[in-house]
Amino acid sequence: MQGSANLNVMIKAARKAGRSLVKDFREVENLQVSSKGPGDFVSRADREAERLIKEELRGARPAYGWIGEETGEEAGEDPTRRWIVDPLDGTTNFLHGLPHWAVSIALEHKGEVVAGVVYDPAKDELFWAEKGAGAWMNESRIRVSGRRVMIESIFATGIPFGGRGTLPATLQDLARLMPVCAGVRRWGAAALDLAYVAAGRVDGYWERGIQPWDMAAGMLLVKEAGGFVGAVREGREPMESGAIIAANGELFDPLCKILREAA
Ligand code: LIP
């Protein structure tokens, strides 16, 4: 499957940042035993990855706008298009030497995400989607799972860092969902959780209190893989509310029902 010119630029940027992060990740694994820990080193690795992505994307499409986790928002000459970038999603995993983190790049056009790339360099899994062209992992087409029954299904989520504000609501979600499903997974990288819904590895995902750059690319992956995406609060947009639900078509409504009752 051949992607558009924009998609190729995004993939090139994601792979370039991925190579730089993999090099730094090897160093982080060694730093676990030091008393100071790898905190500053990881912040530098994160910023460097964003710099590489920005250089690549803005070099190829100088008129597009930009929003990145590390460098914030910049308007472009073309007000209809912008890049939405998380150079390192799953920073806490990276910091602890856990090989589960990703580069996430989305392209938005007139307020809608039209292309998305989520790259997991540690596993060399590149998930990508373009509006109307389906969702893919490396060379293979991916689809959401076909499970229909909650008790047979597993769901991914994120639990707020350091007891942040959304913790009580998340604990309520877990209390309602865990008795009626086959299990909940917490892997620590929202972009990959969404990619895994798209690939049918988990049947659904929800999280409260995340940022547009954590979810933009992954949302398109799920939709293009045949799944559904919505906000925890009905009628709102996930990227604007920061609370997202994604699942296959059969489980989306039952999952929403459980989570919205707790909201
Ligand atoms: C992280 C997410 C994770 C979530 C964290 C954080 P970061 O993104 O991917 O799932 O639970 O709160 O937002 O900060 O590593 O880019």
Description:
- The chain has 263 residues and is α+β, with helices and mostly antiparallel strands.
- The protein has 2 domains: 5-142, Fructose-1,6-Bisphosphatase, Chain A, domain 1 (2-Layer Sandwich); 150-260, D-Maltodextrin-Binding Protein, domain 2 (3-Layer(aba) Sandwich).
- 39% of the residues lie in helices and 26% in strands.
- An 8-stranded mixed sheet has the order 2-1-3-4-5-6-7-8, with helices on both faces. A 5-stranded mixed sheet has the order 10-9-11-13-12, with helices on both faces.
- Helix 1 runs antiparallel to helix 2.
- The radius of gyration is 18 Å and the shape is globular.
- The mean pLDDT is 94.
- Bound molecules: L-MYO-inositol-1-phosphate.
- L-MYO-inositol-1-phosphate (LIP) is lined by residues 69, 86, 89-91, 158, 161, 188-190, 210, 214.
Topology, pairings included?
Blueprint: H1 5-31, H2 39-60, E1 64-68, E2 72-74, E3 78-89, H3 91-95, E4 102-109, E5 112-120, E6 125-130, E7 135-137, E8 140-142, E9 154-157, H4 167-177, E10 183-185, H5 190-198, E11 204-207, H6 212-224, E12 228-231, H7 238-241, E13 244-247, H8 252-262
Parallel strand pairs: 1-3, 9-10, 9-11
Antiparallel strand pairs: 1-2, 3-4, 4-5, 5-6, 6-7, 7-8, 11-13, 12-13
Helix pairs in contact: 1-2, 4-8, 5-6
